[in-house]
Structures are given as structure tokens and as C-alpha cells.
Amino acid sequence: MSSSINTACTTRKSRIGSEQWCRVLQADVRGDVRQSVRRRGALAFAICAVFLAGMLYAQDTDLRAPSAAVAGTPASIGTTGGGSATFYLVGPSIAIERAVQLGQDIPLTAKELESAGKYIAIVCAGNCRSVGFFVAPAKPVSLAFLVHPSRAPVGESNVVSGVALPFDEFHNLVLTPTSVDFQLTAAGAAPVSHRASTQNGAAWFRTSSGRSAGNLQITASINGVSTRRVVQQVASDPCRLQIKGQRNAKGFVVETEPVRDCTGNPVPDGTIVTFTARDAQGTDTVDAPVKKGIARAQMEGTGPVTISAASGVVMGNELHLGAQ
Amino acid sequence: MRRLLPIILVAVTVLLMVIGLTSVGRSGGTVGIASGSALPGFSSNANTPEQALSNFLIDVQRRNWDRAFASVERTNDSVNEQSFIQEWTGTNGGLRTFSSLESYDARPLHATDSEAQMRVRLHWSTPVGPMEDVRDFHLVHRADQWKVVWDEVPVPNVPSQVIPVNYLRWDLVQGGAGEQWGSNNVDSPHVRIVSMNAVDSAEGAVVMGEIVNEDTIPAFVNVQATLVDAAGSAIDDESSFDKILHVLLPKQVSPYRIDFPKVSLGKVKNVHIDVKATLVPASSDPVIGVMNQKLDTDAQGRAVLHGELLNQSGETVNVPHVIASFYDNNGKVVWVSDGYVQRALLPQESEAFAVEIPKSLAGKVQNFHVVVNQYSMHNS
User: Fold this and answer.
1) Structural domain B186-282, CATH architecture
2) Contact criterion met (CB < 8 Å) for B287 and A234
């Protein structure tokens, strides 16, 4: 009943313009435009009469919404009464109109119900009746899997997180609680599994990075569907930066011991080590990249020299070389 | 009377023209300092050291190379006109090749009847802004004329050689548009500001400090700062522009400096700093050593950090750019200074550099860190 009234009001509003209708109503409430009340009172009475007549007529037609409609599955809407009518279906990403016969079921094709969400079916024959129903997502067939970050330093707690969102074949987010299996595999370590149930269509996990640099493969699975992502576990800051040096014809060569982080992983090649040499001539600095685990720099000077090294905010040892 | 006025006017005009054409000094110049810019068509005889130097610099400015070269006295036979021109116009795509001599100020240091020493401040216009070059010229008196002694040793040519380069390079592969959602995410590099200091300078407020790339991949970084007043309103918003090493390799540290001209720190309540880091392809080559760095006072009495850049690779660096951070005895960054080197840095060769420190801060400086930004034509 209420939906019929709403439909009639909406129709009325759209005919004379909702803004104008509101202005009339506001004028009525204030009572300061008596002339307007008198003139429009007659019009309102006529509309209400037609509306009530329509309601009485519409009681002959009834709509039955499909129960437990599923996306991509055909369904039907039952009708009562007789005669021809116009059928409207409005839903997420769809709006259709077609002629139907009252008293017969109105078939809805799988194509028309691909999108999950709330639909409204409207039948108009002189007056309009409507019914709403919900189309649930189908079974999950794919997973959107987001993992953050793409690179994580080793040995950091709760640094890796992932979110899995199951979707059906029509790209509807599956809201029904479903179990998602997360499997984490890193080289040299036993795989770790974690099961989480989706809440409002999302399942997630959070974990710490391992102690070894290398790829961490993370797989999310649901109903035989799996999606894989890779997190690159990288060496952390250099630890115990040690340098050594020796004289040569051009001056002296200074190089690091293999540069590793505090868990023993070699830092990636290309990491910059800044060598600083101080002697009577002044200060020499060279930003040298690590290559095959070692950073090396050729520096000038023949007198006694003090050399230090730093990588990022990490300092190394100091080295003293005597005069040549 | 009716005839006298036009005659006076013509006479005065002719007199002024003669004065204008024979004099190279600009009106309003400081007494004892000859200064000038190109005056087309005329140059007077080199009867004085100032006049000789002025004629020479005007010829250089006009790129009248034959006349300029003819007017110098060479001390080195290896100097030919080609090397003389290259000294003024630059080579190998260095900053000097894109610069032009705008004007100059010459000041006599000492002079006798037979020789003179002049200090010239050369004002260059360059793509990175106006630059100043101070140079001492020696002049000698020869046969009623003064001549500039040209004792510049020509830049030696780099010998043919093979330099094995096996440094690293990071390439960036972009995934296709049709890839699955979430499968293509590569995080931006992690960079961190490790120090920040705000000071008032003669030109305005300066925000400076250091930034480090904490990641294992190269980053293109830029630092933006907003000065906020007590009411929470933004006073000014500036970026580090070229006063930062934009491409930071893993674990590399760069100074940054952001200038806020005509803003006093007294009005500033907060400074908001925003760092933007983008993943970019990069190479760790060329490696440039910064040698013989020393804090000193230059000939003009300015506090400077000078040294030499040594290109340790086989690639020419067209425009080297030096950025230096200066620390006090607590390790706090008290100033960041930068300077462009006008000559290209050839493979295995070195070039001198100097960056200035404000005199008021020179006494506080206990330590410094120099990085070299490099612009190479084939990488641009």
C-alpha cells in the first residue's frame, strides 16, 4: 500500500515539479497564502480522488518478488489480475521496460540479473504497483588480492598485510562470509598457512617479514580459486660496516668487508657507501656503490690518512693508514 | 640668440657622443673599478692597463676572437686561437658552452710602468642563473701599448683509453594495462628526512637539512616546505628545486635547501615538509670523487669550501653541480650551499670547485658533506 502511495506521489511531483509542489505545501503549512490554499485545494482534492480510485483498482494486481534471487540465475515475478500492463525493472546497472500480461509470471533472464544488489520491479496498468527484491552474488570464482608492501625489510614485525576480496563471475563482491586460505612461502622456510573468514566481503591478514632476504610468495585461495602475490624481502640497514685499505701507485684503495645487515643478509648491490678520508691536504669523499657485496673506492694522497665509511645513517669503523 | 641655441645643442650632442664612444666605463661606476659591457663599433687605444683589459674583454664579449687573441701576449706556445676560444666558450657540453659574458667589473690590484695586475669579476648569464667568476689578469706594457698576458694552459685532451665500466643500473618495467588489479603494485621508495633546520638569512628564511633513501631502489626525490603562521595560514610554499640531489641511490644521503625570499622566520609558527619520492630508472655510474676539500678564505676574503671533483668513470659529466651541507660541533646542519662547475668533467679528469659559506656561519662550521649532482647530455 505504502509503495503505491509513494509511487503516486512521485508521479504527481514529477508532473507539476517537485519544487513547486514543495512550495505549495510550505505555503499550506504557514497558512499565510490563503488564496493559494483555496485555488490549489480543489486541485489536491481531485488528485487524491484519482489516487484513491487508482489504489482501489490496483488492489486487483499483486506482485510477488522472487525469493533468494542469485546473480546470473533466471527468476520470475508473479502477478495477479488480468489485462496488459507495462513492466519496468530498475536495478544496479540495468533499467528495462516491456509489455506484460497480468496474471502470468514475468520472467527475468540471467542476463537481466547479472548485477547483485537491490532491484525494483514496477507494473503499471492504469496505476502502478512495485515490489523490491535483492539479488545476491553468485559463488566466488575470482579473488582480488592486495598485498602491501611490495618490498619489506627483513625482521620487521607486522610489516606485511594482505586483503582478499572474493568476486563472482559477474564481478559482484561476495558478501556471504567465506573462508579464505592464505599461504606464505619463503625460500628456506616452512610454508605458513592462515585461514580467515570474509567480513563484509573482505578477509585479511597481517604478518612479520622473515629473517632471510628473498621473495615471499603469498597465495590466497577460496573454493579452488587462488591468486598469488610476491613480496620482496630485502636486507635491512647495513650492520657492522668494516673497512680495510692498502696503498697503491695512485694513492690508496679502501674497501668494505662484505656488507651485511644484522641478520646476515648481504645488502643489495648498488647500495651507496660513503668513504671519507682525512689527511693534511684536506678531506676526500667518494660515494661508492656496493658491487658483489663489497664497496670499493680509489682515493688519492701519500701522507698519513684517517678513513671512515658510512652507509645511510650507519657508520663504520675508522681506519688509519700511515705515510707511503 | 635664435641661432646660438641650436649651435650649442649640436656642440653638446657631439661632445657627449665623443665621450660616450671613447669611454668604456659605465656612469655611476665605483671609482677605481672599471666596468663595462659591449659597445658596438668602437674601442680606444690601450694606453692604460684598464683600457687594454677593457678592450680585451669587450672583444671577448662580442666574440671577436681574432682581435681578442691578437691583443694578448702568450707565454705558452701550446696556446693557439682554438684553445683560447675554448677557454671562453667552453667545450664538451659544459655549462660555459651555454653561457655568455654579460658584463664585468675590473679592479686594479697593483700597477707599475711596465706591468699591472687586475682583478676582474666576470658576470655570466647561464641557463642555471647568473654566475660570477673572479679572475686575475696580468698585463704588460709593450711598445706604447698594454697587453693582457695569456698564461692559461690549454685543457689537455683525454687520451684514448678503454675504461671498463661495470656499475649497476636499475630499470623499471611497467606492467600492461590488462593486468589483474593489485598484481602490479610497486611501492614508492622509502625516503626519510634525517635533519631539518630553519634559519634567517639576508635574503629571507631558509629551511635546510638532509634526506636519506632508506630503500633498496633508487628514488627521485623532491622536498616541498610550507611556512605556516600562528593563525595556521600558509605564508609561503617553496620547493628545494635544484638544491638537492634529486636521484638518490639506496642509502645515499643528500642535503636539501629551500629558500623563502623576503620571509622572516619571526612570523613563522610551523614548517610543514612534504617529501615526494618516485621510483625511477637510474645508474650508479658515473662515480665522482670529491677530493682535497678544505674550508678556506678566497682571494676576496669570502669563506669557501673548495676542492676538486674527480670523474672516476668513463663518461663525460657535462654539468657537475656540487651541493654541500655544513655541520656545527653538535652535528646539526647549519648551512647548505651549492655551486655549478662551468667546465665539463671529462673521464678520469678533475675540476676545481668552490662553494661559499656565509661569513656569520663560517666560524660555527666543524664538518661538511659534499655530494655531486651530475647532468649528462646523453642521459637528459
Assistant:
1) Sandwich (2.60)
2) no
